[in-house]
Amino acid sequence: MRNYHKEGGEVEETMYIAVSMDMKQNKYLLTWALENSRGKQLCAIHVHPLYKKSITLDPDPDPDPLYYHPLADMLSSSSAQRRKSEEVLLSAVLDDFLHNSQRSAVDIEKLYVKASTIEEGIIELIEQHRIANLVMGTTAGKFYSRKTIKSKKAVYVRDNAPPFCHIWFICKGRLVHTREAINPLTSSPGKNVPSDQLSCWSTDASDDLSSSLPTTQSSSNFMMGNKSETSLLDCDLTEADNSRSVEFGESLRCQIAENKAEKAERLYAEELRLRKSKEEELAKERGELKTMQDLWKQISNELSMTAAQKRALVDQLEDAKLSLKKSEDRLLSAMESIEKYKIEHDEMHVKMNNALEEAQNLRKQLSERSSSSSNISPFLSVFSMSDLEEATNCFDPHLKIGEGGYGNIYKGFLRHTEVAIKKLHHNSTQGPREFLQEVEVLSKLRHPNLVTLVGACPESWALVYEYLPGGNLEDRLTCKDNAHPLPWQTRIRIATELCSALIFLHSSQLGCIIHGDLKPSNVLLDENCVCKLSDFGISRVASINKASTDQTTLVFTNELKGSIMYIDPEYLATGELTRKSDVYSFGVILLRLLTGKSAFRIAREVVSAISKGALDSILDPSAGDWPFVQAEQLAHMALRCCDMSRKNRPDLGSDVWRILAPMKSSCQGLSILRLVPDNQIPSYFICPIIQEIMVDPHIASDGFSYEAEAIRGWLDSGHDTSPMTNVTLANHILTPNRALRSAIQEWLQLNQSV
Asked: Which residue range or ranges hold the U-box domain (predicted)?
């Protein structure tokens, strides 16, 4: 047997492969060892069990891969041929393994030993030869993890192998478990092996494997002791082998007899089962035959009945033919009656149309008389002409506070409330239509920055509004009647509130409402300079133009109205009134808030100043010291709104509001108490939802401040839109407005001290 230890006691790097009787498993082990040997010498080891039958007559339904081989079914079961059969089987296995290794051009050593069990033989080889690297086959179920081995022999070797041995367990060519070496082997040669249990062969092709299996020779490197001890051991082993052979033969004969008895019992049971099955089939066929006889009798009876029914049906057919002839005669008579009734129906239809036309004319006349009162919303108050005359002292000229294309505006005192009354001109042709349009819009909309319509008087085509003592934006920008100029903070707030009102109109539930006549004179101010948009006489409810690629809201009109300085150029050219028409007018108002100049060519002047880097020179000095960054932002945004092309103008909700809302929040707390008269509550302090002074103001994502409890209640009730703009909120995050809260507390302290 070849020595596996180098001179000086150093252990040679050798990988041992535990060869089983399963050729397929051996191929898996050899393939894995060749791929992972990393230059190590390979050695095949095999353990032949002494006390266990190597091959049984009946194939094991779940053979162990280390023991079972398909050739076992073909071997003789006689005791005399057992040894020879095992030797032939082992020779075939080892020849197959060597053949696979020679095809891989690898020289593999072989080591063979006999032991009581395979697992004990492997442990014995590991201890005797100091095996440090061992590759061993195992089995693993479908639901076993990679680190779990199923074979009892593999488990035994894993648990009982010396700690210096590193073992790889392979299943179907895959590594399923590794037992790491605890104390790696560095030296110490292996122990001796008895010569009758151990054999070793070279992989040379000239070696005869079948003659090598029963040999008792061994290498001098693995044999120690004297010859007398060896002879005694051989005798003992021979006696034990003979005794086992006799026992094996007896056991084999008993097993054959038992198998024959079991087979006879199975054949008898099968014969009984077949006999019972045949008897059941015969009984079933007899039952079916009886059923067929009964069925034949039933069918015969039914045929007799069918023949009788056929005769009855022939008689009924003759009767039906007679009835059909009578029905045809009646049908001809009915058709003549239908023609007669049709002529009468046409005459009645003509009379009905004449009556409907007459009724429609009468209804039209009646509606013309009562159209004024029928178009008034039930939510508005209806006033008589005498009520208005009493409120205005018969429309006293001294109470006249304004004049427009629709008519004159008077200040009045109606039902203990100051109101503004707009009365139609006597010679106005569009007054009734504008009256109904404004009632239709303002009666159904509510917004903090839309003027409130109190009621109407159909007799005189007059409208009654809330009274706003601050006048209009046009008068404040021109400082009419020595009015105080508006600070830049107030102008930014007015722009933000006006933008909020327009967004609300453009996204109204009634449809996209386009104001169409947006200008400073239609922007009214209350005592706190809060803006209120008014004059909806020429407003339009737009529809969606589905043919347009950008889904623009359109209204086509041939009646061009409004101030020429604020009218959309494309509206003048095409007659198409859109949301972007209001954006253009809003841009002109922004430029006027910045500069305080006239609307005539104001956009050109601002563009020229910006191009020269002299924006400060054109800003309105009466507004105070404008913050340059905010002024520049407003100027650029206003010029975008005033773009000649409608497509280039920004959207109020998504573009303009994102710039104005932060501006309003940043300057909301600056000198807020100096912007309002004494003892008057600033509008910023009032919550738009509950209309009370805020205690804990919070800023929502729409840029407006609300009482914290009120806005949370609004959101918790299922609303996801802004209470001010009716636009969907970007989020529900609320930010405390500490600047506004400080201003409210300061104002309350000042008024309490007064």
From this structure: 680-754
